[in-house]
Queue: 3 jobs
Job 1
Amino acid sequence: MKASPLAKLSEKFGSKADLVKAVQGLATDALFLDRVNAVKGLGRVSNAKLLALHTTLSEVKERFGSRAKLIDAILEKEKKAKDATFRERLEAYPTPRLYDFYRGAARREKHASKRAA
């Protein structure tokens, strides 16, 4: 049976406050567009969403280092490295959406290479 978000949170971080601190530590300007409600903050976000955000930000930081490098990787995968308007559009997207976009582009590239072979 699948563990609940609370069980995962307790196992990895101990408390929600510790998870919020970990996400805030990853949510630097290089990785995160700050769209969090200033009044409510990350403390009001659900455990499942916080865990998903932590996972995504950790993977992006480990693989790419910053949002800018992730955007460059997407442009390479899509073969649109010189398309300035596409870059502008990607820069407006939040990091989780960019990472999903990258994974989709990588999957499409993999399937295209299989069909060509």
Note: Residues 21 and 42 are 9 Å apart (CA to CA).
Job 2
Amino acid sequence: MTHGVRGTLAALAFAAVSLTALPASAQDDVPTEPRPERLYFNSGALLGSARMVGLGGAYVGIAEGAAGVSSNLSALAQRSSSLERDWDLGVTLSWLDLPFTGTKRRDVDNDGLADDSVDSRQLLGALMLQYKRFGIGFLWRNSRTGYCITLGCRGEGEKLRVSLTQSVLAGSVAFGQDDFILSLGIFSAQASFSELGDESWRYGDTGVAVDMLFRPHGRPYRIGVAVRPEVVAGWRRDDGQSPFIAGRQIYAAVVSPAVLSLGASWRLGEGAHRYNRLSPAARRQLQVEGDALPVPEEEPRDALAGRWLITAQVDLISSVSNAVSSRSFATATEPQFVGDTATFQPRLGAEWDTFPGLLRLRAGTWLEPSPFRDRNPRPHLTGGFELFVLRYWEDWAITASFDLASRYSNWGVSIGFWR
């Protein structure tokens, strides 16, 4: 009897030791580092001012105002033709996909499938300050998407938040009679993932952006170039932070592909040669500096500068290696590799001063390439109008735009200054 009890106790002790050792053994198999793949930063959605959207995003060769900073940083030093003071301040804000907008029938990333997100929001903002020939500014673009991590997905704690951000801090200077503008900026790509609480898994790194604009005085055209570097933003690990969120193993980095944009714009019609005319402030500055070139005579502020504007642009998007879509992470599916081939993104737009000083009509198109393998490019049709409203302190206008494509639509309205 005593021997049987001892045997039973020994067996129980062995079982207890074995059960205690199991978690430790299982714990040894848990990865302590992220997956080697990189999440692809896809910012293909056209976001910007109503004018930019209406022209199909072909704005590198226009580069006007704060709204133009997102396309060409040279907008920081391109002075409005009506500017009379030595300084100017500009701001713009665009918001795509309001929180109450449904996303189940929408395919934002052009992978041929309906988005799995339960909410989606994109913001773009720019701030610029000009003083004489110089300009400085800041550009910020953020895409935030929520994915369900439970079947019910009724509370914030049951959603996985993916936030992708691109920003640029830049300076710009104009040369000659504002004929050539050169801009340099620090380009940053950042990402964060969060579930519930204050903890977030963050990524980030920087590169150098270089933009140019050629706008010869007395000529009816402009040529623009914009260069965005490839940025591989590694995981910025906090002390003791696990490489898992919501049961999903995170990736080692986020990659933003390099983009080279080439664009041009032309004015057609009566007064087209005034397209690149100097502002009163620039003309006064040239007279004070005693520029060797003859200072052109001042023209009436409301003089026509061509009733037609044609603009074209092509974006060359570089390939990246070992990159996967954000869908792979958010839905815990097998990694889907994307962006392994270079792509072209052409844009074309036209603007017509239907009733000069009162109404402008716009139309455009652009071809959206897909970073997903074996997925065809998606054509977009864009357009809109700008209507003068009233003159009170400034000339105010209402602008509307649309961007339509298969499984995608974007309608916008804005209030701003008539130029």
Note: Residues 1-26 have pLDDT under 50 and may be disordered.
Job 3
Amino acid sequence: MPLAFISIGSNLGDRVENCIKAVREISSFATVLALSSIYETEPVGKEDQPYFINCVVKIETELSPSDLLASLQSVEDRLGRRVEERWGPRVIDLDIIFYNHLVIETEELTIPHPRAHLRRFVLLPLSEIAPQLVHPFLNVSISKLLEALKDKKLVVKVGEFPSVYSQKSTAYPQT
């Protein structure tokens, strides 16, 4: 069954609770295999906004990449996301970082996420649960991408998810 990594972020309302709700919603259509710690992070792109809470979840899903995207967008809608400005404040943000080792580029979807390898708030939590995962386009492991990262934005571990979601796994098939 396909494996995917989803980046979760929130900087409006109860940021941690928003992320917990997102994981619960995701678990209704995918199996949660691993979940990173919770990180507070400096905004990227538009800096004059509240800090984010970010994490990464590893899932197993029967959904195709486009169906997974549609399901994640539905979760965002149910949790109250309103797109008002690019990189602006949001209740929840769910991005597909990787889906198996696929490289996809369509109008609606790009996998791997086109900026994930440039963002500490993605790479640090991802390295916690899948350090040896190899970026399918760059052919470099997540841990090596993190070591070479020039992004110096603040990313601070602030906690763990409730125990029901705290299973961590570094296993990832290298097929």
Note: The radius of gyration is 15 Å.
